[in-house]
Amino acid sequence: MSTDSAKQARKRSIVTTLLYIEGVIVLALGMWVAVMGFTHEDREIPPLMGVLGFAVIGGLGLIACGRAFAQKKNWGRAPAVLANLIVLGVVKYQFEGGFLIGAIPLFLLAIPVLYFAVTIIPEERS
Questions:
Q1: Which domain holds residue 30?
Q2: Are 19 and 80 in contact (CB under 8 A)?
Q3: For the chain, what is the domain count?
Q4: φ, ψ (nearest 5 deg) of residue 66
Q5: Could you give the C-alpha distances from 91 to 10, 27, 45, 94, in angstroms and in order?
Q6: Is 55 among the domain residues?
Q7: Is position 1 within any domain?
Q8: DSSP label at 106?
Q9: Within-domain flag for 3
Q10: How large is the angle between the packed helices 77-96 and 100-119, nearest 10 degrees?
């Protein structure tokens, strides 16, 4: 294994792990929203179901992207980049709203995922 190949494998491993972490976080946030939604007095079920649906789809999608990177498949790159660009937009509004405890961790997670997802060189198919 050459140095460049080892470097690419290390990047792939890092982005895989970060995508798994992001997926679990999104699923956990979805569960938190579900608990808060059902225990709160003024609940509106249709919007809550929409948020929960997006949380499940998003979390499982990020995990699937991580798995694609782990299996050296290229289809996980575009959705991983798109999801993390969306996260940067969310971070912007969280910073503006003063919610730094949410914005800073999201920012620190999204930037390396974007970097590694974009800089991994796709392997040639034989």
A1: 9-119
A2: yes
A3: 1
A4: -60, -40
A5: 27, 18, 27, 5
A6: yes
A7: no
A8: H
A9: no
A10: 150
Residues of the chain with pLDDT under 70: 1-3, 124-126
CA angle 47, 110, 125 (to 5 degrees): 105
Q: What is the DSSP letter of 98?
A: T
Tokens 């993390």 sit at which residue? 84
- Asked whether the beta carbons of 83 and 58 are under 8 A apart, the reply is yes
pTM of the model: 0.86
Q: Is residue 126, in this structure, part of any structural domain at all?
A: no
Q: Which residues contact 91 (CB under 8 A, 6 or more apart)?
A: 103, 106, 107, 110
Look up residue 125 and give its two tokens: 């198919």
Residue 9's pLDDT is what?
A: 92
Closest-CA residue to 121 (of 67, 77, 61, 56): 77
